[in-house]
Amino acid sequence: MKTETNKSLLHLNTFGLDQVAARFITINDETELADALQIARDLELPVFILGGGSNILLTKDLDCLVLKINIKGIELIREDDKYVWIKVGAGEIWHEFVLHAIRNQWGGVENLSLIPGTVGASPMQNIGAYGAEIKDVFDHLESVALADGTRTLFFAQDCRFGYRDSIFKQEAKGKFVITRVIFRLNKFFNFNTSYGNIASTIQELGYTEPSLKAISDAVIFIRKQKLPDPTVIGNAGSFFKNPVVSVEKYERIKTAHPDVPGFPTTEGVKIPAAWLIERAGWKGKRLGPIGVHAMQPLVLVNYGGGKGVELLSLSKDITDDIKEKFDVQLETEVNIL
Ligand code: FAD
Ligand code: EPU
Predict the structure, then answer these.
(1) pLDDT by residue (tens digit) across 210-254?
(2) How far apart are CA 257 and CA 321, in angstroms?
């Protein structure tokens, strides 16, 4: 196990921001993790846990010990007539796990194809896309407490999953390293093709009927059209969450803007932040090296050489403008450091 000092994080965050970590260790297993946490305690260094860096905004150098989680392994640990339980190392690439599930005809994660990042980060914000969320297939996770190295299991109800939310973004934020996640996948499938244009894309791609592979291919096709590739343009996916407002507030906005889209949820009405940002005139706006993506205004981008503080300032200007124009408070999805 090697401790690196003043390590550049440029290629370790998908915004492509050039910040430095004071200390940096790559963690390959639970023993290395225990050793690294002991070093942090001995040196009284704060710790930051890094996965694929696809949902963080670095606004400064990190004066701490960064642990890059690289714990691997995909293992079938149990099965019955209907389900398989798969234990996956936190450092596995999410999309590679999805492809592994599809190859084995295990259903439940195909709609979540091509989401960047690692398996260990997936419970953090209950990743979701195209009508599915990981809470639907989550069984439990293994974690290690930063404070004293104790191992703790979290079952679904402990995680308090919500829309882009979990206990790990709230009370448990920064307190646990997720080391392995156990998913319960289906041997018999309920294909979920109702979101947006998945069904028509499956046909366009030449499939005569849905399958895990057909859905995955359709989701990949749609995502590649809609979202910028971080290896080409720096970004962290949706920068903001879609706001959920009361029915009354939604009706008020609709009176002023009759074409505002709205999707009823149990908590109120979800309004696409992309619509609000576009209507407020920010879509495609460029401020030197950074900007608002021209195809998908929920995504802030770094064309190259931009700074995290500039992106943060842009996000605040957008948030203030949306508040003023629509009386809607935007919340960030991305973890700001
Ligand atoms: P990181 O960015 O490295 O970390 C994110 C947070 O999780 C940090 O707070 C970090 O400390 C913490 N963390 C990471 N690993 C661990 C661990 N093992 N234990 C404890 N804490 C940990 N998200 C969606 O939900 N749906 C989408 O459709 C989607 N599309 C995206 C498209 C693009 C182009 C991009 C760039 C991002 C997209 N995202 C999406 C966001 C992102 O892919 C997810 O949030 C992903 O789960 C982040 O994984 P990561 O490994 O990169 O996490
Ligand atoms: N829209 C506009 N203008 C645009 C683009 C979209 O007004 O330029 C409006 C349209 O009304 C459209 C609506 O936004 O119907 C929704 O667009 P889309 O289906 O692309 O979804 P999204 O709300 O932009 C969310 C997630 C994505 C996820 C997709 C698919 C959030 C914050 N974002 O995006 O997740 O991939 O749905 O399920 O919930 C991420 O979290 O990083 C992410 C990319």
Answers:
(1) 999 999 999 999 999 999 999 999 999 999 999 999 999 999 999
(2) 16
Whether residues 202 and 97 fall in one domain: yes
Give the span between the Cα atoms of 51 and 54, in whole angstroms. 8
Please name which of 313, 311, 307, 319 lies closest in space to residue 241, comparing C-alpha atoms: 319
Map residue 37 onto helix, strand or coil: helix
Last residue of a domain, one of 69, 88, 112: 69
Q: Write down the pTM of the prediction.
A: 0.97
* From 62, 110, 124, 137, mutation site for ligand 1 pocket: most ligand atoms within 8 A of C-beta: 124
Ligand nearest to the CA of 279: 2
| d(CA 56, ligand 1 centre) in Å | 7
Looking at the fold, whether 85 and 216 belong to one and the same domain comes out as yes
Assess whether 198 and 109 both reside in one domain.
yes
CATH code for position 29: 3.30.43.10
Lookup: tokens for 185:
């996948």
Residue 159's nearest CA partner among 124, 194, 129, 133 is: 124
Is the distance from the beta carbon of residue 131 to the nearest atom of ligand 2 less than 6 Å? no
Closest Cα to atom 31 of ligand 2: 241
Residue 114 belongs to domain spanning: 74-226
pLDDT band at 282 (very low <50, low <70, confident <90, very high): very high
pLDDT mean over 284-290:
97
